[in-house]
Every structure is written in structure tokens, then in C-alpha cells.
């Protein structure tokens, strides 16, 4: 049975030790980082830099506490993510969201280079075959995965598995393009965007949100560069009339997430990766979108474990017990169940955890240890 350490977001004593940063310090001491990481070892602190307008990422103060704890055992940490938009723009987004070398106390670097094609092909599984793992993550000997828990339009639930599967893999490969990158998870077959002219109201939101600016409307007709498109699906997400579609399959997508996460983890030796899930500002959408909605669930706290499945299961168990917040997207759901994340997206998100278990990434049985 795996151990999952937990610190509640509730503050009952007005002193620093009971603050969220203070509790995170205590969690990291309880976990005993020196049991996983060595002196002078380079350690990637993997997070999500967010997007311009999407500010509900793991806060820099928490990343700083992780960095300081790693420095405390004489390791050499750096903070990283893979390219979601053009590299230099993404570093500026990170800076706008407060993630920079001064705030986190360590270098902030891109895992797959400025162009997002610095990667190495790794065997992934039956669905993906091979996947392009960011070269920096491939090469680094150890990692701390800091995940902002939230909803996700495709994954339904986004935690540590999604952070690794999409954040540890590049958008594309310099030779085989999106079919070797995270686009292979987002779509099936040839992954061509389908436009329904009759439904389209020419609002141009798809053109505006494209991170690579490959969508163009000429003479009121939709067009895009198939060769340059990353198949991220943002354009289909923002279309208010459902005029754009990227063919996909929910079950395949969830299993592909598990395969990609396994591929990333296969580049590390045993006991060289730990996971921190931040159950804070739990919004209904991914941090890569150009805005952040109000949270749908109240802050729950912070979880830490060396078992990716155990921490995901513990996270979901907590979310299922929490009440949806009023004045949020939860109020707009017509048919409600006891699962707010499923209600928001209708995605079978638990498949990703079940598949990760089938692939041998960990155990769903856990012991919750609250500090």
C-alpha cells in the first residue's frame, strides 16, 4: 500500500507553520527527499507555465518551497515545462504568471527547446507506438512533478498523469511532426480538422486562439496549414457553435495518456520521481487556455507521494467528497450527479488511472497520512 501525505488547505491557527507554504515545507520534510535524490543531482521540477490570461497555475511561492527543499539536500533543481506556444512567448507567459528564476530560486527552462522539437523517441505502447519525450526530461536523472489539479475538456480530470503525458511530451517531432507528439493523443487517424460551414458564424475565435497562427479565413472560408498544425484542439474547444471538430475517441485518449506517462517515466530509474498535487483553484479547464474560470471546488490542500496512481486516486477521492461551489460552472450543469468533474465534461476520466494501473505504474490502494 502506497503512502500519500496530505496537508489541508484549511488554516486553523494563525501562524506560518500552519500556512499553505509552511505546510508544504513540512510535507517535504516528512517525505524525506534525500531518500530519493542525491547530492549535486540535477532535478527537474516539472510544472505548467499557464497561458496569457490563465493565471491559476501552481503558484510561484509553492515552486520556491520545492526548490528550496531540494537545495536543502544539496541537489540542483530547475523548473521546466514543454513548449505549448512558441518558445520565447511561453517563457514570457511564465514570467507574467510569476514563474522566473528570481521568484522560484532556480533556472526556468524549456524541456524541449525554443521550437518544441528537441526530443527523443521513446517506446510508448499499443496505441501510440512511440512518442517524442522532451530531451531535457529524457536526460535528467530525477524529477518532482508539481501538478495543478483541475478539470480538462478532453481528459475530464487533469492531474499528475496528464502533466506527464502532455507536459513531458513535445507537441511535435522535427521529422514525423504531430503524429509523434502530443497531437497523437488528441486525435485519431489523420487528425484533420473538420469545418461545418453551415454552423460557422465567423466569430474567428478559432483563428484568434491558435497558438501557431495557422488558421486563416479568406473570403469567409476556413483554412489551415495541416503540416504546421499541432492538433492541440484549442480551436474546437472555443467554437461556440460546434462548427469545428477534431476526430477523437474518449477511451483511446485516456489510454493514450497513460501510455505517454509511462513512456516519460521509463526514462527514469526507480524511486527518482515524486509527485505533488496541488488541489487549489480547481477550475474546470486546462491552464493552457487564454482565460481561467472561477474554481468549481473549494481548495482542498496538497498531496505528496512517490506513487503516481495512488496520488491520483487520493486526489479524485477528495474531489468526489467536496461540494461544488456556487456561482461557478457547476451551477450551469442541468443533469447533476455526485461527480462534478464528469458532469462538467462527460469524459470517462477514470480510464486514465485504470489504464496506468494496468501498465504497472503504481497502486490505487493508499494510506493517507495527514500532517
Write the layout of secondary structure elements.
Layout: E1 2-8, H1 20-31, E2 42-46, H2 60-72, E3 76-81, H3 87-96, H4 101-104, E4 108-110, E5 119-125, E6 129-134, H5 135-139, E7 142-148, E8 150-152, E9 156-158, H6 160-167, H7 183-186, E10 194-195, H8 205-209, E11 215-218, E12 221-224, H9 234-238, E13 244-245, H10 250-265, E14 273-279, E15 301-305, H11 308-321, H12 340-345, H13 350-358, E16 366-370
Parallel strand pairs: 1-16, 2-3, 2-7, 3-4, 7-14
Antiparallel strand pairs: 1-15, 5-6, 8-9, 10-13, 11-12, 14-15
Helix pairs in contact: 1-2, 6-10, 10-13
Describe this structure in words.
The protein has 371 residues and is α/β, with parallel strands linked by helices. It has two domains: 2-183 and 251-370, Rossmann fold; 189-245, 2-Layer Sandwich (Alpha-Beta Plaits), CATH 3.30.70.20. The chain has helices at residues 20-31, 60-72, 87-96, 101-104, 135-139, 160-167, 183-186, 205-209, 234-238, 250-265, 308-321, 340-345, 350-358; strands at residues 2-8, 42-46, 76-81, 108-110, 119-125, 129-134, 142-148, 150-152, 156-158, 194-195, 215-218, 221-224, 244-245, 273-279, 301-305, 366-370. The model has no long low-confidence stretch (mean pLDDT 94).
What features would you highlight for this structure?
2 domains, 371 residues, Alpha-Beta Plaits, single chain, eight-stranded mixed beta sheet, 20% strand, globular, two-stranded antiparallel ribbon, Rossmann fold, alpha/beta, 13 helices
Amino acid at each position: 500500500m502506497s503512502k500519500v501525505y496530505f496537508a489541508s488547505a484549511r488554516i486553523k491557527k494563525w501562524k506560518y507553520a500552519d500556512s499553505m507554504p509552511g505546510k508544504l515545507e513540512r510535507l517535504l520534510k516528512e517525505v524525506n527527499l534525500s531518500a530519493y535524490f542525491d547530492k549535486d543531482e540535477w532535478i527537474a521540477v516539472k510544472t505548467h507555465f499557464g497561458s496569457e490570461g490563465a493565471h491559476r497555475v501552481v503558484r510561484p511561492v509553492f515552486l520556491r518551497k520545492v526548490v528550496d527543499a531540494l537545495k536543502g539536500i544539496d541537489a540542483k533543481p530547475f523548473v521546466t515545462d514543454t513548449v505549448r506556444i512558441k518558445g520565447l512567448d511561453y517563457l514570457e507567459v511564465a514570467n507574467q504568471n510569476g514563474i522566473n528564476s528570481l521568484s522560484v530560486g532556480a533556472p526556468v527552462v524549456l524541456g524541449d527547446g525554443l521550437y518544441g522539437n528537441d526530443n527523443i523517441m521513446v517506446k510508448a505502447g499499443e496505441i501510440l507506438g512511440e512518442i517524442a519525450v522532451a530531451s531535457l526530461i529524457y536526460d535528467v536523472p530525477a524529477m518532482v512533478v508539481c501538478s495543478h489539479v483541475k478539470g480538462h475538456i478532453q481528459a475530464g480530470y487533469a492531474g499528475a498523469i496528464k502533466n506527464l503525458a502532455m507536459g513531458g511530451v513535445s507537441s511535435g517531432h522535427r521529422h514525423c511532426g504531430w503524429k509523434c507528439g502530443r497531437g497523437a493523443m488528441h486525435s485519431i487517424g489523420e487528425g484533420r480538422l473538420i469545418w461545418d460551414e453551415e454552423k460557422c458564424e465567423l466569430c474567428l475565435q478559432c483563428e484568434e486562439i491558435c497558438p501557431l497562427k495557422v488558421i486563416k479565413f479568406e473570403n469567409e472560408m476556413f483554412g489551415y496549414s495541416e503540416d504546421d498544425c499541432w492538433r492541440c484542439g484549442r480551436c474546437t474547444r472555443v467554437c461556440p457553435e460546434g462548427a469545428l471538430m477534431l476526430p477523437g475517441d474518449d477511451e483511446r485518449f485516456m489510454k493514450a495518456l497513460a501510455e505517454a506517462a509511462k513512456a516519460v517515466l521509463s526514462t527514469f530509474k526507480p524511486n527518482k520521481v515524486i509527485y505533488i498535487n496541488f488541489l487549489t483553484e480547481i477550475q474546470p479547464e486546462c491552464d493552457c487556455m487564454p482565460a481561467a474560470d472561477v474554481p468549481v471546488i473549494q481548495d482542498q490542500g496538497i498531496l505528496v507521494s512517490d506513487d503516481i496512481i495512488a496520488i491520483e486516486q487520493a486526489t479524485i477521492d477528495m474531489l468526489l467528497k467536496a461540494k461544488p461551489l456556487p456561482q461557478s460552472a457547476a451551477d450551469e450543469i442541468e443533469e447533476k450527479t455526485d461527480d462534478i468533474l464528469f458532469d462538467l465534461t462527460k469524459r470517462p476520466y477514470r480510464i486514465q488511472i485504470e489504464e496506468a494501473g494496468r501498465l504497472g505504474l503504481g497502486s490505487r490502494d493508499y494510506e493517507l497520512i495527514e500532517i
